[in-house]
Amino acid sequence: MKRIYTVLFALLVVVSAFAQTKAEGDELYKKEKYTEAAAAYEKALKSEDGVSAALYYNLGNAYYKLDNIPLAILNYERALMIEPGDGDIRANLALARGKTADKVTPPSEMFFVTWWHNLCNMMSIYAWCVTAIISFALMLLGILAYLFSSNLTLRKVGVYGAMALFVLVIIANISAYTQNEAFNNRNSAIVVAPAIPVKSSPNNSSTDLFVIHEGSKVEILDSSMKQWREVKFEEGKQGWIPVSAIEVI
After folding, report:
1. Residue 19 confidence (pLDDT)
2. How does pLDDT run across 159-214, given as a tens digit for each residue?
3. Strands 188-191 and 246-248, sheet pairing
4. What is the CA radius of gyration of the chain?
5. Which domain range does residue 243 map to?
6. Do the beta carbons of residue 63 and residue 71 sit within 8 Å?
7. Residue 47 falls within a domain, yes or no?
8. How many distinct structural domains can be found in the chain?
9. C or N: which end of the chain has fewer Cβ atoms within 10 Å?
10. Is residue 105 part of a domain?
11. Quick check: is 103 in a domain?
12. Which residues, other chains included, contact 70 with Cβ-Cβ below 8 Å and sequence gap of 6+?
């Protein structure tokens, strides 16, 4: 029992310290002390309970105010991974990306692929999981109404409602799984170096293909090399850059 109390006390201390550090960051941000606010948010994120969309968003705002656009984009992207349906995060991310040197037009995709991505990103993993559980419970109620009710109208509502809820359960589970896979297997990164030549192979003496600037988003294709990463840019070009030039989202 004493050990349980010790663990609970330790958890309370961690949560209290996290809340205090976040509050300090918020207060510093209000006072326009953006460097100190960013440091406070970074410290809060390092605590056990520190990772949250709100903290990454606030940290992104602090870096944006400091005109550190690549780190602002990095933290907005991290916030968006946790809360993909948040309009404020998306708006600030678009604002920050508008200040980057490389203006990228991503390749077009089929309308149904865009529709599916938008659907999956409507809510967070947690929200999709809750939706799946509630929908499944309501689906069971609909099935019970169909099986045991003597009222014809109620039976119709039960069976058609159960069918619709079954579809929603599938969508919710797939969306939650897709987001969870993206969160746990992060293969996207932000270029943090001011300007870096993209190489044709993983060595400094290879041919320069083009130059990429800070704030650009890349997809990591090959991470087998210790000092290099093969990456693909949003417009489709690819090549090798030093691992120090990027920060994984």
Report:
1. 53
2. 999 999 999 999 999 999 988 888 888 889 999 999 999 999 999 999 999 999 99
3. antiparallel
4. 23
5. 188-248
6. yes
7. yes
8. 3
9. N
10. no
11. no
12. 190, 191, 192, 214, 215, 247
Same domain, 7 and 82: yes
Nearest to 75 by CA among 101, 90, 57: 57
Report the alpha-carbon distance of residue 219 to residue 113 in Å, rounded.
Answer: 18
Q: Is 180 left (phi over 0), alpha (psi -120 to 50) or beta?
A: alpha
- Looking up residue 88, the CATH number of its domain turns out to be 1.25.40.10
For residue 208, count CB atoms less than 10 angstroms from its CB and return exposed for 0-12, middle for 13-18, buried for 19 or more: exposed
Residues 228 and 240 in one domain: yes
Integer CA distances (angstroms), 222 to 35, 57, 134, 202, 205, in order: 35, 29, 40, 11, 19
Three-state DSSP class for residue 79: helix
Question: Angle 215-217-223 (CA atoms, 0-180°, nearest 5)?
Answer: 120
* Residue 246 CB coordination number (10 Å): 24
Residue 102 lies in a domain: no
* pLDDT-flagged residues of the chain (< 70): 1-20, 48-50, 106-107, 109
> Which ranges constitute the DSSP H helices of the chain?
2-30, 34-45, 53-65, 69-82, 87-97, 111-120, 125-148, 152-184
